[in-house]
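Run: sequence + magnesium ion -> complex structure.
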Amino acid sequence: MGQRRTSDVRQQGVHPAMRRVRVTGAVATAAWPAGVALAGLPGVPGVLGGVVELVPLAALTLVLVLRAVAVPAGRRAWWCLAGAVGAYLLGAVGLDVHRHVMGLVERPWWADALQLGFYPLAFLALVLMVRGRMHRLTVSLWLDCLVTGLTAGAVVAALVLGDLLRTAAGGDSAALVGAAYPVGDLLLLGLLAAGLVVVGRRGGADWWWLVTGLVLFVGGDTVYALQVAAGTFESGGVLDLVWGMAFFCLGLSACHAPASDLTGSAERRDPLLVPAVCTLTAVVLLVHGYFRGGDPVAGALACGAVLAALARTALTVRAVSALADSRRQARTDELTGLPNRRSVFEALDGADDRLLAGEEVAVLVLDLDRFKEINDSLGHGTGDALLREVATRLRSQVREGDVLARLGGDEFVVLARDLDADGARALADRLRTHLRRPFLLGGMELAVDAAVGAAIGPEHSANAVELLQLADLAMYSAKSARLGAAVYDEDRDGHGRHRLEEVAALRRALENGELVLHYQPKLDLPTGTVAGVEALARWQHPERGLLYPDAFIDLAESAGLMAQLTTRVIDVALAQCRRWVDQGRALTMAVNVSPSNLVDQGFPDDVARLLAAHGLPASSLVLEVTESLLMADRERAVGVLTRLRDAGVGVAIDDYGTGHSSLAYLAALPVTELKLDRTFTAALTGSARAASIVTSTLQLAHALDLVLVAEGAEDAATVAALAELGCDVVQGYHLSRPLPPEQLEVWLHERAQAPVTSPG
Ligand code: C2E
Ligand code: MG
Ligand code: MG
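>> structure
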């Protein structure tokens, strides 16, 4: 519940405290015309009129402070902005009091100090906002900022501010202070331009209102400075409206909730475009200044921009060459200097096009004989040296334009163009002949041989990656039959190919969600209630229909897909369990796991992650393991099982009685359930011996504090006999076959409607 509420909030992107900020914003907006109207009323004294006019500014400061207090995201930036507007306001109020109350005409220095305080604080706010929107600010990004900022400054200085600055530079201190405003605006504009470059289009509404506000502010200030210089400024004109709008935009900015994720990556699609345009502009300004005697400030700024752009270019060139270097390294095998596995797969991609065009491509896989022995007996140093020598000899036999690469370990591959089966066989023989010449390593003579398998496209396959797999199959044939070299042969290697196709299909099935689960209910005999279900995997094959586990579990295990399959099964099963819990059905979920899961140290963490993802307690999951599985790598399996058990997950021994059960390890295992195999259950009613086995197993289970589940109860008599003997839980066709979830829900519903005295 709590979780859902937070996600709702996140979805709408509205911080609850934002509401307060917005209400204050609305009041502030209403206060603005009211303040202006009030100030204009006849009889309102000058000072009051002046101060009342500043009410909206005070309200804006309040809105900004509220935003900083209420919303943690970007708090420091909002404090700075509040400080900036607050300082400006204080200066303005002070000035009004100074003029109207004290009747002094001269502008006091502290009013300017306060109002100029707006700039550094606004700079800081901008910098903090930009920073908050970037994951990582790289040096190139800083340089981009610098180039853009300096160019923007140079343009403004050249176009409008040059004269103002020159007048101020030659004048008295008052003129200097007066010039500080346009300089502040200039810097702010530069910073804004730089910020826009870095943040791009993904700034969010609050960012864009802030930018609009500051642009209006700077624009208003600039026009003001020009009008003052020309002696045409009149108070209460359009400029007041512009400033009002500027502050209004800042208020709007504060009223927009921060969007959930604005932090963009520092990598942009056209990283050099803006700096390039800026540099060009700066150069134009410089050239123009050189011939026409332009403004020195603009010239200095443009100069700075060009220098920063040069540094940026140098950095980019270095980064690009480093990238090319690391790309090459990523495609090269460190030991032999040959292209590596990754490189092979890229070359195979390229070969596909040639195969499509009908060209012949041969793929040869070469694997050294007894390399492991050499490595183990003579040490890795000698092994490495041998691989290097082998690479050199192989290289001497491969035509220019063909690819020779190291696949890994002692396996090499050759991709050769325009080579048919005879050509491939001849090349394989040549390679082997060259390798059989003894190697001289560390004063020792080493004799080496290799097995080579080849596959030819498009004859064997029109897919280059498949050709590699077929060449591998041929290589195994060559190795096992001591043929030395072999070209792929459908009759001899076809079964391997079929298996490869099946593995590929299963992998696709796992990715495409073709794996579905059926659920078989487990009945609690003492209470007559369904306490849990077992999830059983089915493959909804697009061509072969619904397949049962015997058609794919072994395949998944041998192809190394078991971890993926089990994770998928647990995920789907827990999602279903969650849906049932939400419907008010509390059912434990049993899932079968295989040997490879239990030797995987990461498995308990995966299980914990999935339980947490579905919001279920560990006790809602039972993992079923078979006894044979526990024999494989017992120590590791017991470790993994203990961690699962400690976390609260149930552990059941499946098909109990069919494996090599040893009472000693049963006592030591962290188990909660025994599932008696169906061969014993089935024989129960017909044989006294089977009944004794069930009875004694039951006693054993209860003595060890374990739940006994009888599997495979196919008729009412068996269920009754099990209940009679005191069995805890029963599962079997008599109750229900494994069913898809919707059908199981119907079954559960019908059972609840018509409770039966005898189970089933
Ligand atoms: P299991 O875990 O012992 O599952 C019980 C099997 O017995 C199921 O076969 C079920 O349909 C069948 N069964 C249940 N009640 C009766 C009955 O009254 N009579 C008879 N004759 N059979 C009954 P299913 O679904 O074909 O599964 C076979 C095996 O495949 C499972 O044996 C389990 O070891 C394995 N398996 C199933 N799903 C998975 C999975 O997701 N992962 C792993 N690793 N193995 C699985
Ligand atoms: Mg099972
Ligand atoms: Mg079983």
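>> summary
Residues 534, 592, 624, 654 surround magnesium ion (ligand 2) (CB under 6 Å). The first strand starts at residue 361 and ends at 368.
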